[in-house]
Amino acid sequence: MNAGVRGQSVGRPVVAVPADVKSFEGYRWHAAAAQYLEAVAHVAGAMPLVVPALGGEFDYSRILDFVDGVMLTGSRSNVHPGNYGEAPTPAHEPFDEGRDATTLPLIRATLERGLPLFAICRGFQELNVALGGSIAAEIQEQPDRMDHRAPESTVQDERFAIRQRIDIRPGGRLASILGTEPIKVNSLHRQAIDRLADDLEIEATAQDGTIEAVSVKTAKAFALGVQWHPEYWAGSDPASRTLFEAFGDALRGYRSQKATLLSAAG
Ligand SMILES: N[C@@H](CCC(=O)NCCCC(=O)O)C(=O)O
After folding, report:
1. Is the full-model pTM beyond 0.90?
2. Candidate from 122, 124, 139, 226 with most ligand 1 atoms within 8 A of CB, to mutate
3. So where are the chain's domains?
4. For residues 77 and 69, is the Cβ–Cβ distance under 8 A?
5. Residues with CB under 6 A from ligand 1
6. What phi and psi values does residue 124 have, to the nearest 5 degrees?
7. What residue range is the signal peptide (predicted)?
8. Tell me: the pLDDT tens digits for 46-60?
9. What is d(CA 236, CA 20) in angstroms, rounded to the nearest whole number?
10. Is the ipTM here above 0.95?
11. Which of 9, 30, 32, 238 has the greatest count of CB atoms below 10 A from its CB?
């Protein structure tokens, strides 16, 4: 990932990025992958703030007073199906229930308060679950579905290669950012939106009908989810860059609106 610098550090908007809980080097970590943080910093022009996945213990909606938006990252873990009323099976694993307990309430609070929200891959699936939708597991095993998993490789640039066509709904919010010509994206997932939440609008689909992008119908600000990974090529792929720039513009808009309201209140 090679993102170019955008914006200055003074006065940059701040973006909350909920962490994953990971185990390595003998420790449990609350961590977010660099590719997301760097795309926020270098292309959206905002300061990322990683939020530990301790949502069962804390009401993180309090941090919405101090940030200008929220970004939800991708992760290999899956939303626990208990969150959408289904019993867990081995096909739903692995889980990260600390992250679920953090992101699901935070998504609802972010939308209620009108902060910009950008949801990527696992985050896109979380957005659907947080608003009452459900998720299908192991979609590559379903007839008429393509294989949306990453190519087998140890080289991240190959796993994240742009290779899958998506069609963008004319007249939609994604089309207002990227236009209506089909684009190619990367694809690294085994699950997909099944029942779409009532407050979500489909913005793009893959050739097998898999939902690839959604927006929140009643959102007061930028509220977009994508099943692919624009963060990985945000420094070089025009569509990926444009999405992060649009998120950055929404963050700056929210920040300046908040400053105006605060100064009017004295
Ligand atoms: N677990 C979900 C979400 C997929 C996702 O966020 N993938 C990120 C890429 C992880 C990697 O393979 O490196 C699903 O599989 O649908």
Report:
1. yes
2. 122
3. 14-246
4. no
5. 74-78, 121-122, 150, 188-191
6. -60, -40
7. none
8. 999 999 999 989 999
9. 26
10. yes
11. 32
